[in-house]
Amino acid sequence: MSFFGMGRAQPTSAEKIAAVENELKVVAEMHSRMVKICTLKCIDKTYREGELSKGESVCLDRCAAKFFEAHTSISEQLQKETANRGGGGFMG
After folding, report:
1. Does the global pTM surpass 0.85?
2. Which of 22, 23, 29, 37 has minimal Cβ neighbours within 10 Å of its Cβ?
């Protein structure tokens, strides 16, 4: 089984580059969504202090951890479903 699918020849350089670019895009989008969601959830909108409070820091840490855990779980499930259908494409 190859990195990009079952029974296929080795991917070309262009396919490898496209896969890496896609992975970077997925990670950047995930990071952007995580920052937006966790900021809205955890940061006081009045910005009373220049530094994060302990509660804000803990909230951000937990939010980011849960967001990443959910993203990883979903990605793994999608990879399994793709492999079961015979696609075998790389997802992040």
Report:
1. no
2. 29
Please count the other Cβ atoms lying within 10 Å of the Cβ belonging to residue 83.
14
- Measured from the Cβ of residue 42, the count of other Cβ atoms closer than 10 Å reads 19
Domain boundaries, the chain: 13-83
DSSP string, the chain: --SSSTTPPPPPHHHHHHHHHHHHHHHHHHHHHHHHHHHHHHS-TT--SSS--HHHHHHHHHHHHHHHHHHHHHHHHHHHHHHHTT------
Copy the structure tokens of residue 9. 């020849």
CATH number for the segment(s) 13-83: 1.10.287.810
For residue range 31-56, what is the model confidence (pLDDT) as tens digits?
A: 999 999 999 999 988 878 889 999 99
